[in-house]
DNA sequence: ACCTGAACACCGTTCAAGT
DNA sequence: ACCTGAACACCGTTCAAGT
């Protein structure tokens, strides 16, 4: 099906130029593709460049270095977090937990990004929305200012660490069966320890090795942190 | 000063052989030296090998791969933690905090090891002592078994994440003045944000950027976690 | 059994030269 | 101004060959 003759031969708005110009956004897009498909380890300047059909040197006109590219991936992930639940002071603890769940969800959706996030100071536009939301919830719970400010550091630190731990496990080429076998071996190992020196490790071998399912462990963590923060509110 | 003639010419026990044989321990020693002197980034198979006057291939007879070497560095650090304070059930919360401080101390003493530790499952001999101590303290505080078991994961995760954050900051070639300037700029940035969208971030700009001193922030974290765990003990 | 040189398949970053 | 090829100084790991 060819173009009717009254159409201009050179299209006014080409859908795709022969060679799209490199931009920051296109670089981050490509990096994000590599990240979700092959994990953080695979995100190299060279791989991202070849994903864009060019050489690694070309990226340096738009991105200062690898660290800045990492930061941009973290920022992208923060943009995907949705906090639209209107704040209800009576439910601030439940809402704080839901906020942390949403943070973990977004990091899980971009496997490997936690590795880049764990050492990054969040200053981007959307990371600020997370900060603002946490502060609002803690103020609703009467948590003192300095405590709320520190919690803004503690909460993402915890969520990111959990996400990172998960990706370390899955990044190694272990099948779910391998993980299961490993956990099972670990329980046997704990149970066989000298009971005089490690009485509780032996006695609690089962619960110690039951947390591999992930979600229950994360729920425990956000419960502890939320309850701990709640104790900081002055009781009038 | 030459040897007196009645001394045997070939010494019975040479203080140092011309070429000491490679061992796991010597490799970890060398890696530890590189780690504390130049940080985690510098710990490569090649650098460790050249520290020992050999090539990288030689290490593979004693160490499976880089990941195993990382694990051994973490194990070394765990060995340096001292928990000899006899357990006093009445002071379990204070003692739990002291335990976390000791964990952080040991990681700080080996700058960069946190990076290796953050994705490592602690199974070594000495890491078990940490596990056993945390369990003992939580049992003293009547924390339920499953909660205590999960706390064994949560506590090292938090301490390691804090240590890692610190090394990321110091690993970049920033002087203390650079850090101070960065924090100061960040405060100014927060204060200049649109107050209608980020009211609390603007209002709390000062406390948000005051935590860079480190210790106070860590104290906050261990207080929140300890208080949170205490709420899990059934009140009889 | 342990050690080694050389090679393989990768990195991040720089820089002079092109358009 | 943006892009590129080529180079520099690195990685982890393997493997055949030596002792």
Automatic annotation (TrEMBL), chains A, B:
<dbReference type="GO" id="GO:0003700">
    <property type="term" value="F:DNA-binding transcription factor activity"/>
</dbReference>
<dbReference type="GO" id="GO:0045892">
    <property type="term" value="P:negative regulation of DNA-templated transcription"/>
</dbReference>
<keyword id="KW-0804">Transcription</keyword>
<keyword id="KW-0238">DNA-binding</keyword>
<dbReference type="InterPro" id="IPR001647">
    <property type="entry name" value="HTH_TetR"/>
</dbReference>
<feature type="domain" description="HTH tetR-type">
    <location>
        <begin position="21"/>
        <end position="81"/>
    </location>
</feature>
<dbReference type="InterPro" id="IPR050109">
    <property type="entry name" value="HTH-type_TetR-like_transc_reg"/>
</dbReference>
<dbReference type="InterPro" id="IPR004111">
    <property type="entry name" value="Repressor_TetR_C"/>
</dbReference>
<protein>
    <submittedName>
        <fullName>AcrR family transcriptional regulator</fullName>
    </submittedName>
</protein>
<keyword id="KW-0805">Transcription regulation</keyword>
<feature type="region of interest" description="Disordered">
    <location>
        <begin position="1"/>
        <end position="20"/>
    </location>
</feature>
<feature type="DNA-binding region" description="H-T-H motif">
    <location>
        <begin position="44"/>
        <end position="63"/>
    </location>
</feature>
<dbReference type="Pfam" id="PF02909">
    <property type="entry name" value="TetR_C_1"/>
</dbReference>
<dbReference type="Pfam" id="PF00440">
    <property type="entry name" value="TetR_N"/>
</dbReference>
<dbReference type="GO" id="GO:0000976">
    <property type="term" value="F:transcription cis-regulatory region binding"/>
</dbReference>
<dbReference type="InterPro" id="IPR036271">
    <property type="entry name" value="Tet_transcr_reg_TetR-rel_C_sf"/>
</dbReference>
<dbReference type="InterPro" id="IPR009057">
    <property type="entry name" value="Homeodomain-like_sf"/>
</dbReference>
């Amino acid at each position: 099906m060819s173009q009717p003759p009254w159409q201009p031969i050179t299209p006014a708005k080409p859908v795709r130029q022969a060679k799209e110009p490199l931009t920051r956004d296109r670089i981050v897009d490509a990096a994000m593709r590599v990240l979700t498909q092959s994990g953080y380890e695979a995100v190299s300047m060279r791989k991202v460049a070849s994903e864009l059909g060019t050489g690694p040197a070309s990226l340096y006109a738009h991105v200062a270095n690898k660290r800045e590219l990492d930061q941009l991936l973290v920022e992208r992930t923060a943009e995907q977090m949705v906090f639209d639940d209107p704040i209800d002071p009576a439910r601030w603890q439940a809402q704080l937990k839901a906020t942390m769940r949403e943070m973990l969800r977004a990091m899980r959706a971009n496997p490997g990004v936690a590795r880049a996030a764990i050492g990054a100071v969040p200053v981007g536009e959307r990371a600020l929305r997370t900060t603002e939301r946490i502060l609002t919830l803690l103020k609703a719970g009467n948590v003192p200012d300095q405590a709320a400010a520190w919690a803004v550091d503690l909460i993402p630190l915890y969520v990111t660490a959990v996400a990172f731990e998960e990706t370390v496990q899955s990044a190694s080429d272990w099948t779910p069966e391998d993980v299961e076998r490993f956990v099972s071996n670990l329980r046997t190992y704990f149970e066989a320890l000298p009971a005089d020196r490690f009485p509780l490790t032996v006695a609690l071998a089962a619960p110690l090795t039951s947390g591999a399912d992930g979600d229950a462990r994360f729920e425990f963590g956000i419960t502890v942190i939320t309850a701990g923060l709640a104790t900081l509110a002055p009781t009038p």
